[in-house]
Amino acid sequence: MASPKTIEIVKATVPVLEEHGTAITTVFYQNMFAEHPELLDIFNETNQKLGRQQTALATTVLAAAKHLENLAVLLPEVTQISHKHRALQILPEHYPIVGKHLLGAIKEVLGEAANDDIIEAWTEAYDEIADVFIQLEDDMYEQAMWDGFIPFKVVEKSAAAQDIAAFTVAPVNDKSEDKQTIDLSQLNLTAGQYITVKTDPEDSDHLALRHYSLNSTDTDKGIQFAVRRDNRDGHYGLVSNHLHDEVEVGDTILLSAPAGDFALNKDLVKQNDVPLVLISAGVGVTPILAMLEEQVTSNPKRPIIWVYACQNEKHHAFKDQVDKLLESAEQVQKRIFYFEDNQILDDTYLATLPKPADIYVCGSMPFMESMIDGLVMLKHGTDNVHYEPFGPKMSLQAS
Ligand SMILES: Cc1cc2nc3c(=O)[nH]c(=O)nc-3n(C[C@H](O)[C@H](O)[C@H](O)COP(=O)(O)OP(=O)(O)OC[C@H]3O[C@@H](n4cnc5c(N)ncnc54)[C@H](O)[C@@H]3O)c2cc1C
Ligand code: HEM
After folding, report:
1. Which of 239, 249, 344, 385 is such that its CA lies 20 to 30 A from the CA of 94?
2. Considering only CA atoms, which of 192, 198, 226, 231 is closest in space to residue 212?
3. Is 203 near ligand 1, meaning CB less than 6 Å away?
4. Domains of the chain (ranges plus CATH)?
């Protein structure tokens, strides 16, 4: 554990860091990429441009500083980040690089205010925080279904809705070389997990990695995920457009092993007294559909409330699959909202949900923020509301 003196200095500097946090991490990224341009093949260029990653790192470092004497309170959040790190293949040797440039940036931004004592304390604090990540990630590498990124062949590609392509991919299993082979029937996928693809889009100077949630845990034909063409505000999503336009049946893509801890509460799946509420919007249906499938296959008697929102019928993703699964459940309420028809999913509807309920939410960041705010305001305990943002986690909850 960090020394009392370090804890005292680090905590005393939190207000200054809060003031300059984003500036520090911005300088940090600039300097780190200048010295290690190879890391541009790992980091998400768009998150950098939009400042999302800067904010995420700043928030995490500050939260950690506040809890340095007991980093265990941050474990749920750190675990989620570590799943992403493992999926992206972040290794222990990357941590000193981040440490060096983070400390360098603190010095550069704070100038003389960052005296030797402060830098020494933050060096100790960073090492402490990094150790928590490295240890968690070490276990995750041990448990991963395969090592690194390995080739999968696209065996099916179809439209799940307008602008949403569903992919099924099977391992290439090249036995001629000394490579890992994957037996699909042995993969134990969990609803809510995501895989990570590594692509080399023509429109970028760097490789690009992106996460996609499994829309089913059935591996009969291969691993299944679905991708929405992500074009907003006149910008063109790099990887989603590449997968839509350049990747066809027979092509090969690289995948790292399933990751993530967004999962059904196993204790409740077998019981029928706490209803399962599944809320999604747009392509956010992917992990939620896998959860519906898991629930219906394990216990079709549990009451299920299925809530889905999208622009209109053409954008209604996996409609037939969902209807078929809902038919095999015994107690179902289904509510669909088409924004184009002014059907708005808001607090008025949320207020009709039963309590207690076990609730899972996935959709765009604004959609999820409004759902979570509404559910918390309606006094659904935060332990009963689970969600997966399709981007950097909004903020650490612990304060
Ligand atoms: C855990 C997890 C699970 C996910 N699961 C899924 C899933 O199942 N299906 C799915 O489709 N997606 C999923 N995503 C999202 C996915 O990983 C990608 O983020 C998404 O496909 C967009 O990537 P992209 O490369 O196409 O877009 P990017 O190039 O990363 O751009 C992202 C968005 O930013 C906009 N943009 C780009 N540049 C700018 C700029 N300069 N200014 C303003 N806006 C800009 C783009 O138009 C686009 O809308 C998931 C994400 C996470 C973290
Ligand atoms: C203690 C040190 C670190 C902290 C506190 C930290 C924190 C974070 C946070 C908060 C996120 C966002 C997670 C999300 O998407 O919800 C993230 C993602 C990420 N981290 Fe780290 N991280 C650390 C170390 C590293 C290291 C050593 C590397 C590799 C050089 C790294 C590479 C990444 C990448 C590539 C992402 C994905 C974000 C993106 O590109 O969009 N991180 N990290």
Report:
1. 239
2. 226
3. no
4. 4-143 (1.10.490.10), 150-259 (2.40.30.10), 266-387 (3.40.50.80)
